[in-house]
Amino acid sequence: MEAVLFLKNKLLRHVKWNGQPIIFYRNSKNEYNELTDEIENQFIIIGLFHEGGGYGGMLNIELYERDGARTFSKMKPMILCSYQDGFNLKTDDWCKINNNTYKIVEKNDVKNLGIAFEISLEIDNG
Question: How far apart are CA 85 and CA 92, in angstroms?
Answer without folding.
Answer: 17
